[in-house]
Write a structure and sequence with these properties.
By secondary structure, the chain is of the alpha/beta class. The protein is 29% helix and 24% strand. The protein has six helices and nine strands. The protein has a seven-stranded mixed sheet with strand order 3-2-1-4-5-9-8. A two-stranded antiparallel sheet has the order 6-7. Helix 1 links the parallel strand 4 and strand 5. The longest helix has 14 residues. The radius of gyration is 18 Å and the shape is globular.
């Protein structure tokens, strides 16, 4: 007798999804209600045990909320549980562009609804502070600065064939503010 094991195809996980929803993904976040497309889990503990196999992981502005140690653990676990040929897509704040805008006294770079609401005076030092540490009720939500080079090092150290890329509407968050202020990465698990 043979036993046929059927595997669900396109097991895609959106890690740190918050309130954002992507069709065809199972969402993982520490806030929300567990249901068929949502796993209630604190990523500071690594990946939840129910994720045993995946074709794709997606993270949009999640990594800057986690310590370097947790980021490295999480990326390693993603690599281990990713199917050969699978990918991880990551978006992080484009900190280099924010610093260049600050150095060049470029008020236009920070001219968006987000900065006008959270820094009405539009002072460049306040805008840079918001970009680096994004605060909620005076508590920093961004706990680390992640340069593009650092993200590439972390992905490579986890085992990924990694590269910096550009906004891809088929996978990345289309929010105009995210598009303007993000750096994009893709890591592949070579088959």
């Amino acid at each position: 007798y043979s036993i046929l094991i059927l595997r669900k195809f396109n097991m895609r996980y959106y890690l740190g999804s918050g309130n954002d929803r992507k069709k065809g993904f199972i969402h993982v976040d520490m806030y929300g209600t567990e249901k068929s497309d949502f796993i209630l889990w604190d990523l500071r503990k690594g990946l939840p045990s129910q994720i045993t196999d995946a074709d794709c992981f997606f993270m949009s502005h999640t990594n800057e909320h986690l310590s370097p140690e947790v980021n490295q653990l999480l990326l390693k676990q993603c690599y281990e549980r990713l199917s050969p040929g699978g990918k991880i897509y990551i978006e992080i704040p484009d900190q280099r562009a924010a610093m260049v805008a600050y150095i060049n006294n470029d008020h236009d770079y920070f001219d968006s609804a987000f900065f006008r609401i959270h820094s009405p005076s539009m002072e460049l030092d306040e805008c840079l502070d918001l970009s680096l540490y994004q605060r909620s009720n005076q508590i920093p939500e961004h706990i680390i600065f992640i340069s593009d080079a650092r993200m590439l090092r972390w992905l490579t150290a986890a085992g990924f064939d990694a590269k910096q890329t550009y906004f891809d509407p088929s996978i990345n968050n289309p929010d105009p503010i995210r598009v303007k202020y993000s750096s994009y990465f893709v890591g592949s698990k070579v088959a």
